Amino acid sequence: MTVSSITRYARALSFAGFGLGIFSTAHATGSFVVRDIRIEGLVRIEPGTVFAYMPIKQGDTFTDDKASDAIRALYATGFFRDVNISTEGHTVIVRLSERPTISTIDFAGIHEFDKDNLSKALKSVGLSAGRNFDKSLVDKAEQELKRQYLTRGYYAAEVTTTITPVDQNRVGLLFAVVEGPNAKIRQINFIGNHVFPESTLLDEMQLSTPNWFSWYTKNDLYAKEKLTGDLENVRSYYLDRGYLEFNIDATQVSLSTDRKEMYLTISIHEGEPYTISGLKFSGNLLDREAELKRLVAIKPGERFSAQKLKDTTKRMVDKLGEYGYAFATVNALPEIDQKHHTVVLTLQVDPGRRVYVRHVNITGNTRTRDEVVRREMRQFEGAWFDSNRLMLSKDRVNRLGYFTDVDVSTVPVEGTQDQVDVYVNVAEKPTGTLSLGVGYGSGSGPSISAGISQDNVFGSGNSLSLNVNTGSTNRTLSVTQTDPYFTVDGIKRITDAYYRTSYPLYYSSTNDTSFRIVSYGADVKFGVPFSEADMVYFGLGIEQDRLDVDSETPQTYKDYVNEFGRVSNTVPVTVGWSRDNRDSALVPSRGYYVQTNAEYGTPVGTQYYKTDAQMQYYYSFARGFVLGLNFQGGYGNGLGGKAYPIFKNYYAGGIGSVRGYESGSLGPRDKSTNDPIGGSKMVVGNIELTFPLPGTGYDRTLRVFTFVDGGNVWGTEGSSTGANGLRYSYGAGLEWISPIGPLKLSLGFPIVRHATDQYQKFQFQIGTSF
After folding, report:
1. What percent of the chain has pLDDT over 90?
2. Class for domain 3-98, per CATH?
3. Mean pLDDT, rounded, of the chain
4. Under the phi-then-psi rule, with left for phi > 0, alpha for psi from -120 to 50, and beta for the rest, what region is 639?
5. What is 101-178's CATH number?
6. Pick from 8, 33, 36, 32: which is nearest to 22 by CA?
7. Which of 636, 573, 637, 563 is nearest to 605 (CA)?
8. Which fold has domain 356-428?
9. Strand ranges (DSSP E) for 563-701?
10. Residue 410: how many CB atoms within 10 A of its CB?
11. Model confidence, pTM
């Protein structure tokens, strides 16, 4: 090959796109033995890097072909924009011009995305600060930015790149974006649906046309991932109703000429519904055929349901997992009769090998101590694998409330056939909680309660909380510490110290009394677990209550002070029980919660007894609709012929009780002043229907609720509850799982009114449940 031919070859490579610079020629006059190689033009790159890529070494015979190979090899590194190879005697001279490096990458006109996320997206295509500049990568980066905007519905977005040279052979990149309007879904049409109306199918989709809540849900913005999920939802809807022949024939997405509106057309084939004509079992049933058959949720003669079939196979796999078969499979083999529209299902069972757990590994807990997670595990190392215990372990770790996600997986141990390792991967979340309650009453003005707690102090699993209430009728300062594993057997210890001031007569018509009840004390309580859901509590405390009366104090309180004195000391003993069977403590949709508590005032101080009970039940009767029932009751009485201590009275009304009424305003009133004084018996009931906010799909974090409340307080001698003992209210509100806790906005209206009642229509709560 001559010198001129090498020149032509190099130029051809340049035009083919091997770099930004122009290929130079190799000035060779013939072949010779290379005695030396000299590199020129390097600034940042080490000569050793060049020699590593060079196919020519000292002692080699230099030829035109080897010169061409060297040019190709050096250009292929991507480090250089110009390569020139020439010779002087027996020395090969390699003159190089390095590509500039990228100094900075910046963005302009970005409003829809976080710039850090865009930088990560560009890094995925190979473009980041410090890398060599490559125009082809810049083009890829522009396409990636446009793709990111397409996912948000910005079909008119334009991206322009400005390349600015800076010192030391570097360049700065600026991606300027004109976002333009995002395209809204204007219409969604179904073609071929005859059995189910279009409105029913649209309810199965997240994507929708614009509505009042689109600003929050963004469901009116087209996204391919969302559409794929929506089509699967529609497919599942038909398969769950027996339409085995259902098919989505075509999906057309069209854009208006101004790129502001989108139209979706979905063509489907429904087919005919199929009935199950037979059900068979095959494979290795482990002599448990009768037990496995009881788990079947489908029967011959019923219409086919994909969901019921899925539930059946899952139940069978879980049951086999309880006996140690970690990798059991159950496959449903259908025999379809298209003529009669029937199907025979054969459930093929393959239990695999029985395995035991070698190690349980905890990962992802950057702050929480390993033992805090491990002590919740009910699947033990060295024991047979048990899917039921593994699921229970996951639920218990979830109920700690320390993690946003808990993933439990099993991995076979290499080189064995009967061992698995269990991996529990958790994602930490902030465990500090701020709670806030605000109410505004017609007679009292605003009342505020607040609290701060840390549920996982220093990753130990212990909790510490400080609660402050500045309400008009009750003011509280309390500190509570909970150690859930005071002993290795799981006995819980709860220590509480408090200072409370109660102004029972805040709502008095005269409101010129300074009467108050001051209580302070401490108690310790131990919780002993009797099962995975049940716990029994035993506690002992000490308390002092002081009644500050004046001339305007109702006669009921004066009489109590005259008989028992201003100061009362109490040493209460408590016994309680609780069971929590809810699927979630934060947003429950099914299950129940029960707690009872009995308190006895020992002869060391004031003698009395009181019992309290609370029951909650949740039932999900439709997708996203949850019916919640709550009941609270309390009963107290004195012992030894003495009256029930008035400072232990129950109060009702307001936040967490009967909404629509002022806090603590219901119940008995003093006959002389008509002031609320509480009572020894209390009943409160709540019915709440929660459902998704219209237009938000099935988002559980933002919901609407309606409620009916009822309740009152009775029992204090010389008092009256008014013409109608019970008080009722109704209303509606909005619930949002905010970053600082559950937030509730409610508006309540009394159903039963009495001349002495005080009302509180608007309530605002953060961190409370019912």
Report:
1. 35
2. alpha beta
3. 83
4. beta
5. 3.10.20.310
6. 8
7. 573
8. Ubiquitin-like (UB roll) (3.10.20)
9. 567-570, 572-580, 591-601, 608-622, 625-638, 660-661, 669-670, 681-692
10. 17
11. 0.61
